[in-house]
Every structure is written in structure tokens, then in C-alpha cells.
Amino acid sequence: MSPKRIVLYFNADTSDKPMIYRLVKDYDLIINIVKANVNPQKEGTMVLEVEGEQSIQGLDYLRNLGVKIEDLNKEIVHNEEKCVMCGACTAICPTGALKLERPSMEVSFNGDECVVCELCIKVCPMKAMEVSL
Amino acid sequence: MGVEKTYAEINARIKSGQAVVVTADELITIVKEKGLSQATREVDVVTTGTFAPMCSSGAFLSLGHTTPRMKMQKVWLNGVPAYSGLAAVDAYIGATEVPEDDPLNGNYPGEFRYGGGHVIQDLVARKPIRMKALAYGTDCYPRREIDTTITIDSINEATLFNPRNAYQNYNCAVNLTDRIIYTYMGMLKPRLGNAHYSTSGQLSPLLKDPNFQTIGIGTRIFLGGGIGYIAWHGTQHFPSIQSVDGKDLGPAGGTLAVIGDLKQMSPRWLVGTSYLGYGATLSVGIGVPIPILNEEIARYAAATDEELFAPIVDYGDDYPSMKPGNLGFISYADLKSGEITVNGRKTKTAPLSSLPRAREIASTLKNWILECQFLINEPVQLLPSPTDGLKSNTLKG
Ligand code: SF4
Ligand code: SF4
Fold first, then answer.
1. Considering every ligand atom, which ligand is closest to the CA of A120?
2. Ligand 1 in reach of A84 Cβ (< 6 A)
3. How confident is the model at residue B1 (pLDDT cuts 50, 70, 90)?
4. Which of A48, A52, B177, B240 gets the most CB atoms within 10 Å of its CB?
5. Which of A88, A105, A122 minimises the CB distance to B356?
């Protein structure tokens, strides 16, 4: 069985819990952390590859802690034709995948840092951020 | 006193290809390098620019007569109602209008995917627009309904007329409450999670002529990618000079009413915009040229991001409940740096107004003038200035 790619979203109350340690120790899972990010408000996102027989139980344990879990099977695309470089997404994106370059103040998108939280999809006033499946 | 120039002299230099035209950013550098007097002597025109959502916008459309004739009472364009309480086939499509079947904030926060601003963008993009109208029928206008397709070229006139654009300055919006709020200043995260601002600072038109010494009725401008004019002062034009403890923090409160032929504008500079949980609107590109008539005008036009300030306002409670005051002032230099401190807490800033697009407007306008496609109009009448003391009224009830 190939590893399952998931993304975790957690808040300040859970970001200091030893979640990964528990997944490995209590549920015997093989975990590969693809990306991880905790912003100054202590909201965190993490992309994991998870493998192991007890993966369902392990993920239930995380859900009980209040962690939101989604399968990572989509990708976010920045439609540069539609983007007006307003910057409105840059203080919303939790990982800095969308950011203002200084001093040009142009908006750049780095897919490697994106955790597919889809916040930019909702807030972009020009609908320039798109989901591709 | 130093140099004094006239509009006629400046236009003569533009026509002879000798005018010195620079953007407001470039003027700042020139003043730093050569001093104000020399800059005033050398520079004829300074160009400015802003590209941001401007809600009080819309277009008058004169749709053309039908056979038999019809006095349209209700008009919809791509499902968005247009106001038609005008003559038989005239309508006004407002930027913030949304279809009657839009769920609005019924499923909060509403998406407002398509509204009047989007209709205007589709019109200038020369896309076909489905038009429906109803009428009650009269002896001279018997027809009662129509369902057809129009384009900007198939109708008679399309005139962009925006009653309030180009706000001189704007609040820096934050949220002190414990919940996410969705505003026209974007999504604001709880407990000072972010701070949004919305002018291009030292490039922004009305920040560069705080006393309205050159901007007035008839000023020719860059509007929506084409040429437009200042028609009047905008609604809620209450210009003032902000100050704290006697320190000048730059102007605020001025606005413009602008007009122009929509048929020569471009969808790059009139963009339908959707604010989550707030509504639909239109982002408008505007650039105003400032003729450098004397040193005082040059000094104001050279104001820097360090000298121009925005008030920080809580949109969680203070703004909606009309509480006066603010959480302090912050310079555009600090806002553009990406992080500011409010109530002792660091927070990330982001603009809603596109600085790259504002720069593009200022340099496009500069090129138009240099290529002699655009002369500087002397206003018929200047707009009211801070000394006129216009004050806002509030509605009772
Ligand atoms: S909010 Fe949308 S239009 Fe604005 S910079 Fe981000 S992606 Fe571009
Ligand atoms: S989905 Fe959008 S907001 Fe979320 S991390 Fe990716 S770029 Fe940032």
C-alpha cells in the first residue's frame, strides 16, 4: 500500500501537542512530513505521508484533538492573467506561499509552500486562485 | 518666490516634445537629489496612479429603441438589475448590484461571484450580454418585454460615471474581536490577526494635491485604461489635513466623481471584484496628472510614504457602530514594510490596492503625455479644499 497524503490544520490549542510522536509510538505509523508551518498566531498546517495498518485509528486520534484533516489530492493554481497583484491574499495565506515581494510589491505564489487550505480561493476578490484536481 | 508656470506653457512644452514628465515616485528621487527648487524648474508634470476596488461606480447605458417602441421599466443585464427609472431606453448599472437570486449572506460568508462590476468588465471586454426588460406599455411605447443580447458596440452610448472614486486616503483596517469578520477591507482575522490598507501611498492621486490646487472639474485623467475627466467632487468629499499634536500627517477625506466613454476603456483597468461576505464591486484604475505650476505644488506632489499616514480603525466593533476615533496613525512606509504594531501587538499588513498596477498607470499616463496624446486641462473650477470646511452629516433614524 502506498502512503496516503493528507493535510492537517490545527489551531493554537493543539499546535503544542506531540501529535507526530503519538502517531508513531501509539499507532505504529510511518510518517513523512512533507511540509509544516506554524504562523505567529500559532495556527499550523502540515502535509504528511502516512503509512501503516492503524492509520484510520491514528487519524481519529488527531480529529479528537480538534485537528482538521483533508486528503491532499488537489493543487492550487495561481491564474496570473486574472491576478491584479492587489495583495489581499498575502496576510491571509497561513504559510507564506502567497507573498508580496519587496520592494516591487508584486505577488508571488510558491506551490511548494502551499498546504491547500483554500483560504485564498475564498478571499481572492478576482477569483484568480484556482483549485486543480 | 520661485518659478511660476502656466497650463499654456506646460502644454506648449508637451506639444513641442520638450516637457519633462515624471511619475510621483520619480519626483521624490529628483527632489532628494537636486532639491525642491531645481525639481520645480525642471519638471512640468507629475503622474499618479491608483488601482483598487471603488464601490461608488457604474455606467449609464443608452440601449437603443426597439420595434415597436418600449419604455423600459425594469432592466437586467446578465441577470443583474440595472436602474431604469430614466427615459425609455436609458439605464444605469451600478457596480455593487447583484442578481435577485444571489444567496447574498444567506449562506455566510456570501461569495457575490457576479454583480454590476462584472457586467461592466464584460461590457468593456466586448462580450455579449444578455439583456432582459419589462415595461407596462403606453400608447407611444406599447412593447412590454424583450429578451435579447447586446454588446458595448451594439448600444448607443456607454458612459462610465462613478460618483465617488479615488479616495484620498483610507483606513488601515484591523479586527479586535474574537471572530473572523468579512468586510469591504477583506477578511480580517480575530485579535489583530492582520491589517489591511488600501491606497498606493506616495503614488496615490489625491494624496499628492492635498489642497486641490490643480485638481478640479474638467481635469483630464487616465480612467479605466482610457481617457476620462473629473466631473465634480465625489460624494462624501470632506477633505482635511490630519494632524496629531500639531504634526501634519497628510491629507484625508477628498474624493472624485469621474466620467468617461466606456467604449474606449479596457477590461484590464475595470475589473469585476467579489469581496467574500461583503459584496460585488468594481476595481478601477485612475491616474491624475499634476502640473507643477510652482514650488508649493511640487512640494506636496513629492510627499513620501514616510510623510503620509493612515488611521488604524477597528472594523470588528468601532467602525460598524460608528464610534469616532481610531487606534492611532501609521505611515504608508510602515504599512508597506509588511508588519506594524497595533496596541502593542505585531501584525502582518497587506494592501487591497495594487501597487504594481498603480505604477503601471502612472507610467502609462507619463508616456501618453510624452507622446503628446494627452494634454493637461486647466480645471473649470477647482474642487473644494480643506479650508472650505465641508462636513459630513449622519442620517437620523
Ligand atoms: S488576492 Fe487574488 S488578485 Fe489579489 S494578489 Fe492575491 S491572487 Fe492576486
Ligand atoms: S491554499 Fe492558498 S492560502 Fe492556503 S496555503 Fe495555499 S496559497 Fe496559501
1. 2
2. yes
3. low
4. A48
5. A105
Predicted pLDDT of residue B209 = 98
Q: Decide if pLDDT at A16 tops 90.
A: no
The complex scores an ipTM of 0.94
Give the CB-side neighbour count of residue B184, counting CA atoms within 13 A. Answer: 16
A35 neighbors A65 (Cβ within 8 angstroms): no
CB contact under 8 A, A87 and B352: yes
**By mean pLDDT, which of A8-12, B147-151, B186-190, B280-284 is the weakest?**
A8-12
Chain A residue numbers touching B315 (CB-CB < 8 A): none
What are the backbone dihedrals phi and psi of residue A71, each rounded to the nearest 5 degrees, phi first? -70, 140
Q: What is the mean pLDDT of residues B143-158?
A: 98
> Which sign, positive or negative, has the C-alpha torsion B122, B126, B130, B133?
positive
Percent of chain B with pLDDT over 70: 100
Q: What is the pTM of this model?
A: 0.91
Residue of chain A with shortest Cα separation from B190: A41
pLDDT computed for residue A112 by the predictor: 87
Q: How far, in Å, from the CA of A120 to the mean position of ligand 1?
A: 8
Above pLDDT 90, what percent of chain A?
Answer: 52
Determine the distance in angstroms separating the CA of A47 from the nearest CA of chain B, rounded to an integer.
Answer: 23
How many whole angstroms separate alpha carbon B213 and alpha carbon B286? 19
Peptide bond just before B99 cis, omega within 30 deg: no
How many angstroms away from the CA of A72 is the closest CA of chain B? 24
**Ligand 1 nearest-atom number relative to CA A78:** 7
What is the rounded distance in angstroms from the CA atom of residue B40 to the CA atom of residue B38? Answer: 5
Q: Does the pLDDT of residue B203 top 90, yes or no?
A: yes
Q: Measured from the CB, is residue A115 less than 6 Å from ligand 2?
A: yes
B172 labelled catalytic: no
Distance (Å) from CA A118 to ligand 1 centroid:
13
Contact A86, A120 (CB under 8 A): no
What is the sign, positive or negative, of the torsion defined by CA atoms of B332, B271, B55, B157?
positive
Tell me the per-residue pLDDT of A61-120, one tens digit each, with 9 for 90 and over: 999 988 999 888 788 999 999 999 999 999 999 999 999 999 999 999 999 899 889 999
Interface check for A125 against chain B (CB to CB < 8 A): the answer is yes
Identity of the residue in A40, A41, A123 whose CB atom sits nearest the CB atom of B276: A123
CB contact under 8 A, A125 and B338: no
Q: Residue A1: is its pLDDT beyond 60?
A: no
Domains, in order of start, for chain A: 4-71 (3.30.70.260), 75-132 (3.30.70.20)
Q: What is the DSSP string of B115-131?
A: -HHHHHHHHHTT--EEE
